[in-house]
Specification:
By secondary structure, the protein is of the alpha/beta class. Helix content is 48%, strand content 7%. It has a 4-stranded mixed β-sheet, with helices on one face. Strands 1-6 form a two-stranded antiparallel sheet. Strand 4 and strand 5 form a beta hairpin. Helix 2 packs parallel to helix 3 and helix 6 runs antiparallel to helix 9. It is globular, with a radius of gyration of 18 Å. 40% of the residues are buried.
């Protein structure tokens, strides 16, 4: 009952009408966004399936719209699997499993974490393209700190600007304030999480998505101001957002052109 009430309570959204009030199902999500597989847990009721399918569809459509890429690009060339109410981790809202390339969204508490986990999937996927000799089961954000991005394509250089904005000052020489704060936090709490490269990059990404003024979707991203996590300061976020928009808009133009 709690899960149903949570879904029925609704999530604030401001954005285009993609479905025109039509009911979609998880097969529609798989086909529209290009996922390899779509799995729904056996404990997800029929009513919950209806409600959550619409929420997930709109959230992923909003993500594609913000990034200016075709909806089918969200599935990362058909390599990304999606699971709802199945295969997640206990006490975790959402999780990306790099071994199985699966984005798992919890039934009861996954709302708001979708953008963050999708970036983990992208960060893992893109490593094979920008670090072709170092990418085995690693995230591009982590590899970026250890190896130069292969300058084989203009898109690689555009993505390089985003990672540089996440980690370095504008001079490109030292760790920025965001990174320094996260390192200090982890040191104080005797842990290694807040300053993990892939987490720094994913929080930067979700903060950029949340910053969009035209499209707001609390199922896609929410809770940034109340999570207790550290996000980029205003200047860092502005630089990250510019680099992110440049990269994905150029990627989107390329993908849309190839579809014609």
């Amino acid at each position: 009952m709690m899960a149903k009430n949570r879904l029925q309570r609704g999530f604030y959204r401001q954005g285009p009408n993609y479905r025109f009030d039509d009911q979609v199902d998880f097969n529609d999500i798989r086909d529209t966004f290009g996922f390899r597989t779509m799995v729904v847990g056996k404990w997800v009721s029929k009513e919950e399936r209806f409600i959550s399918a619409n929420l997930i569809y709109d959230a992923l459509a909003d993500l594609a719209q913000i990034l200016q890429v075709p909806p089918s690009a969200i599935g990362l060339r058909g390599k990304l699997n999606f699971a709802f109410g199945h295969g997640g981790q206990q006490h975790v809202q959402a999780h990306y499993n790099s071994r199985t390339r699966t984005l798992a969204l919890a039934k009861n508490a996954g709302a708001g974490a979708l953008a963050h986990e999708w970036f983990h999937a992208f960060d893992h996927h893109i490593a094979g393209h920008v670090f072709p000799t170092h990418s085995k089961n690693h995230f591009a954000s982590k590899l970026w700190l250890e190896h130069p991005i292969a300058p084989s394509h203009p898109l690689n250089l555009a993505l390089n600007k985003f990672y540089q904005s996440v980690f370095l000052e504008s001079t490109g020489d030292n760790a920025n304030k965001y990174v320094q704060q996260c390192i200090a936090f982890d040191k104080h709490h005797q842990q290694y999480y807040m300053s993990m490269p892939e987490e720094l990059a994913a929080r930067s990404f979700e903060a950029c998505i949340a910053r969009n003024e035209q499209i707001v979707n609390h199922f896609l991203v929410s809770g940034i101001n109340t999570s207790g996590l550290i996000y980029p300061d205003s200047d860092t976020l502005t630089t990250c957002n510019e680099a992110l928009n440049n990269y994905f808009s150029r990627l989107g133009q390329l993908l849309f052109h190839h579809r014609v």
